[in-house]
């Protein structure tokens, strides 16, 4: 029996390898002959080194000035055919000697080319080689053009690698092995979830097609992308192993067979779209370098991170190290701090939609409505924006709040325990702004519960005592700067009319595509039937939200983020629909169709941000 099972697994792996190999072969034939690196565009540093910062001229052309030495890394194709390398040089410093030359070295060959003040396009035929990972080295004389302190080489605008379109090229065996491991991990994860055969087959084919497409269209970064994705797959499988019994005993009984199938399908899709995006080397979040430097400081033993937080008008303060301590163990596995930081907070953030669905299911909301909530929260443009800008501690802080709510949904009473106390503690110690928002929100909730929920008063009293203890420890260990660091305000408050316009515009961006109308859901609270503790929870979130808007309007001090309230407003809206519009035939199916349409349209924004480097607006996070 064991031998038969091993034989089936072996044949399955062989078949999977053949399918992936043929898919890569076809994809490279269709999409792979021409690979381009837009120098100066976001993410070019994954294939280019030895240049200064990205620049853009008035015509919209992006470029980098090189240093005396620069390198272009080319990889991913397993072809013994000649390749044509094109370098578009936009110019040289104005005082560079006319006799200056550009030396290009690659694959044990070297050539010297003349430089000119005008733009030029150099084309070189690279000899046939089976070497799939190689570099092009550029050596050029440099010139300082005062007052610019830099010594500039050439202005490199574009790099293109072209292989003959009439030949077949295959992926490397290392990449094929990684792809097999990714799909195998996905199948194993679905088997752990006890998904049906149709679901496993459909998601497996979707993953195979995606991997093949990635390989063909983005050969130069396919290896780095898919290797990172494999690490995520293994981590996800490990977590599902630990949570399998909880899912089967607490979540599965709430759903029919068909509902459970759809929950798995959309969980996988909404989970991996953000992860595939953030792991794509060209994505590169805005704050990656800041977080990478902080992680290094913490790894070297620093317990003090001084910074000027934008939310507090640039006053010098201490950045809590909690998030970086959580990320520290991952340095044992990976050396790239940026990948560690981005992978961790995106891995957690990508599960936010699933947490919202679980919370609603545990609150006895119809499964179709909970599924719609998961799709809606994943489709909102704000989810892309916060990932692109890379506000890691804030993202993780919000995720911890949702996990706290999910944990409470499995309890009969709001009684604190070590697990929920730990979640609240981490959230409060994660980031100054998160502590301010979460602390006020939770304190409001527990005070309202103590006053109005007499039956559970002892539990709310216990939580208030815990909050005091958590806050005191945080003040002593982390936030002592609030007493010792005063700082100076770098910006004056705006006039209230100007600030009100900014807040309205920002709310529209935060809650797109629903706009300001989404805020009107706060008035639904009196019309829905909820347990007293849940009503008080929503009331606390609404009071907190409007309280911080009022502070912003009066003082001009940005102290909150729009996305903090989004899950609560979404849950409130859908609970109202579930309770008050259930008599309308097919309302839940119409809601899911609307969610899918919005989610489908949001994928265009993901593509633009990943492949084209289009920067999402920060407006929705600031006002």
Automatic annotation (TrEMBL):
<feature type="transmembrane region" description="Helical">
    <location>
        <begin position="369"/>
        <end position="389"/>
    </location>
</feature>
<feature type="transmembrane region" description="Helical">
    <location>
        <begin position="173"/>
        <end position="193"/>
    </location>
</feature>
<feature type="transmembrane region" description="Helical">
    <location>
        <begin position="200"/>
        <end position="223"/>
    </location>
</feature>
<protein>
    <submittedName>
        <fullName>Uncharacterized protein</fullName>
    </submittedName>
</protein>
<feature type="transmembrane region" description="Helical">
    <location>
        <begin position="591"/>
        <end position="614"/>
    </location>
</feature>
<feature type="transmembrane region" description="Helical">
    <location>
        <begin position="500"/>
        <end position="524"/>
    </location>
</feature>
<feature type="transmembrane region" description="Helical">
    <location>
        <begin position="346"/>
        <end position="363"/>
    </location>
</feature>
<feature type="transmembrane region" description="Helical">
    <location>
        <begin position="536"/>
        <end position="555"/>
    </location>
</feature>
<keyword id="KW-0472">Membrane</keyword>
<feature type="transmembrane region" description="Helical">
    <location>
        <begin position="259"/>
        <end position="280"/>
    </location>
</feature>
<feature type="transmembrane region" description="Helical">
    <location>
        <begin position="433"/>
        <end position="455"/>
    </location>
</feature>
<feature type="transmembrane region" description="Helical">
    <location>
        <begin position="462"/>
        <end position="480"/>
    </location>
</feature>
<keyword id="KW-0812">Transmembrane</keyword>
<keyword id="KW-1133">Transmembrane helix</keyword>
<feature type="transmembrane region" description="Helical">
    <location>
        <begin position="229"/>
        <end position="247"/>
    </location>
</feature>
<feature type="transmembrane region" description="Helical">
    <location>
        <begin position="561"/>
        <end position="584"/>
    </location>
</feature>
